[in-house]
Amino acid sequence: MAKQLIDTYVAELPPTVQKAVHQSTAATTEKRYQLLGDDYADSDGLRKLAGAIRQHTLEYLDTYLAQAEESLTARGAKVHYAVTAEDACQAVTGILQAAGITKVVKSKSMVTEEIHLNDYLANQGIESIESDLGEYIVQIDGDHPSHIVRPIIHKTRGDIARSFEREGLGDYNDDPETITRRARKFMRGKYLEAGAGITGANFVTADTGRLVLVTNEGNSRFCLAPAKVHIALVGIEKVVPSDADLSLLLNLLGRSATGQQLTVYTEFINGPRRADRPSGPEQMHVIFVDNRRTEVLASDCKEILRCIRCGACLNVCPVYRQASGHAYRSVYPGPVGAVLSPLLAGDKFKELADLPKASSLCGACNEVCPVDIPIPDLLLRLRNRAHQEHVPSPGTPPMAGFALLGSHPLIWRSAMTFGAAKDYLPLDRLPVPYLGAWLKTRTLPKWRGGKFRSWMKSRHGRNGGGGK
Amino acid sequence: MTARETIFAAIKSALAPLPEREPRPAVAHGVADAQWLADETDNVALFVQRATAVGTMCFRSSSDCLAWLFEQQPARVFIPDELRDVTAKFEGIVEVVRSYSRDQVDEIDTAFTPAAGAIAESGTIILTDESTPDRLAALAPWTHIAVVRKDTIHRSVADALAAMPDDPNIIWVTGPSKTADVEGILIQGVHGPGVQGCLLI
Ligand code: SF4
Q1: Helix and strand totals (H; E) in chain B
Q2: What is the Cα–Cα distance from A336 to A350, expressed in whole angstroms?
Q3: Given strand A265-269, what is the order of strands in its sheet?
Q4: Is A387 exposed, middle or buried (0-12, 13-18, 19+ CB in 10 A)?
Q5: Same structural domain for residues A144 and A277?
Q6: What DSSP designation does B28 have?
């Protein structure tokens, strides 16, 4: 039987990975819930307010983006714009070549994943090393992150120990502490020899031009201490109006992402180092990247651009927990990815149009989202778009029969009367593939249908027709 | 058309059809303060409590700090000139260097730097380029002790944001560097300090 593509990934996922993903996502969800409950009487109200701030910013994006540019320029940063992924990669290369830099260190950034910056730089002969521990492991394995906050949620310590051994970072040792120390030592050398540090940004404030970077490891800070050049790649939607708005957004980001009040390092940068200071980059470049964000802004799914990449919707999603990140076949997995990835795919929309269907629409993603994105609504809008664009939809049973039943009262009534017959039919042996697959793991309850109408009628009589 | 023009034109045309736009919501100062903050009266005590909770060691006096430091047997301790008075007792007991240089990144395993402030609500230390000019000094050594003046402790995250200094680089440090990337197991000291401390003066 035709399956949804995501099902094939679930089927192939090793049980150890599935267990690891489930445990870790469940634990983070629990921590988040605890902390928000301890700290706020009305965390729901805060989510809604944060959502309104982000939505407001998006709907005045031209104003705020221009303001951010002005604030940054006034403080000595150079602002660039890139329409496509290719443009963004070229801009980075141009800056590096002009400064004669061939080695860079990178801190974790989703937009650089999105534009495949590392591959591009490698082709230009520029060494680019990921400094976040998880991202580094993904990089040496030629793998892809499977979670936006915990990139190697799908790997075991044994996998990592083997990769480190292969890369010459020491003999096989799967002790997490040893792994971390080895990465520390290796990365030290890379930081000190790198000519440039490349980062993303979690937020950019329009009023003061501050780029906000949050990490737990301290790697972004390290990328920006010894290097001469700082290049930040920032999606155009990352702007917020003012520093004051950050009090809400930062408080919600840490709690939602990892169950921390604040992430360990929260760094605010709005300019190159001042002349009298001994460390910090002499040049700061900010590249605002569109890469189809303006298309998303023009679509009926613009709310997804509020996203602050906390990963809470992944952690709570029953589908993500079963499928892990690679099943989403794109940079952004989970509920946010099911919306964002097809939208960012442009004319490849059809290839990812199945993702919005990989959801039971349970609504948990919306409930945890710190910026209150109505993800289930957006998924429905994308399903509709796929339907409009005649994207074939394997794994969806034909519903024409049900449509007929459901829209003709007479047929429906007789079906209900004869429904009990189902208890005596060998349903699993009927030549209906979807039914067979469905029944493999489930049993139908005994038929109790067909009685509602008569119950309703008798009740109607009792209440004298008025009802309540 | 330049990239900038293309992007701004696309934004404008995306927003043009909107019948109305989301107004800017009022964000009251302190709207996201933790609810228990109102019951706290002593900023310093709260800071110590919160900082300890996130794994930052707090010292109330330089003698306490020295006693602890002595036990750690540091190889070389960086203490900049401006902290000479605070750490006068350290001289001769641990090996002190007065300048931080990159060639010594591996030898200097402990560093003291002045903080620009702190946040009680979250147990956060605030460093700026102004307070800690050498970013590496606060980051590369295994042990970093920030020296925080009690009268610079902000009550809340919101207060700290409202009083952001004009500095191109401000960093909030809430605990030691850490990761849970490997099987969700918490390990401290990934790239930054494995031991984060704070000396209150
Ligand atoms: S959609 Fe919401 S919950 Fe999901 S990552 Fe983005 S901000 Fe977090």
Answers
A1: 4, 12
A2: 18
A3: A239-240, A203-205, A211-215, A265-269, B169-173, B124-128, B117-119, B153-154
A4: exposed
A5: yes
A6: -
Report the residue among A238, A249, A310 best suited for mutation to probe ligand 1: largest number of ligand atoms under 8 A from its CB: A310
List the Cα angle A183/A189/A193 in 5-degree steps. 140
Residue pair B126/A266 in contact (Cβ under 8 Å)? The answer is no
Q: Which residues span the domain enclosing A145?
A: 79-294
Is A65 part of a structural domain of the chain?
no
- Contact between A147 and A28 (Cβ < 8 Å): no
Mutation pick for ligand 1 pocket among A238, A331, A373 (CB with most ligand atoms within 8 Å) = A373
pLDDT at site A426: 75
Residue that terminates a domain, selected from A294, A317, A352: A294
Instruction: Report CA dihedral (A141, A146, A149, A153) to the nearest 10 degrees.
Output: -80
ipTM: 0.95
pLDDT tens sequence across A331-355: 899 999 999 999 999 888 988 989 9
Provide the CATH topology of domain B40-200. Rossmann fold (3.40.50)
Task: Kindly state whether residue A240 falls inside one of the protein's structural domains.
Answer: yes
Listed residues A294, A320, A343: the one ending a domain:
A294
Residue boundaries of the structural domains of chain B: 40-200
Mean of pLDDT values over A8-12: 85
- C-alpha A427/C-alpha A444 separation (Å) is 10
Q: Is residue A218 part of a domain?
A: yes
CATH of the domain at A254: 3.40.50.10420
- Range of weakest confidence among A35-44, A173-182, A372-381, A437-446: A437-446
- Number of domains observed in the structure of chain A: 2
pLDDT class of A415 with cuts at 50, 70, 90: confident
Distance (Å) from the C-alpha of residue A289 to the closest C-alpha of chain B?
Answer: 9
Over residues A295-313, the pLDDT tens digits come to 999 999 999 999 999 999 9
> Which residue's CA is the nearest one to ligand 1's atom 2?
A369
- Measured CA to CA, the distance from residue A254 to residue A440 in angstroms comes to 42
User: The pTM is what?
Assistant: 0.90
- Quickly state the pLDDT bin for B164 (edges 50, 70, 90): very high
CB of A369 within 6 A of ligand 1: the answer is yes
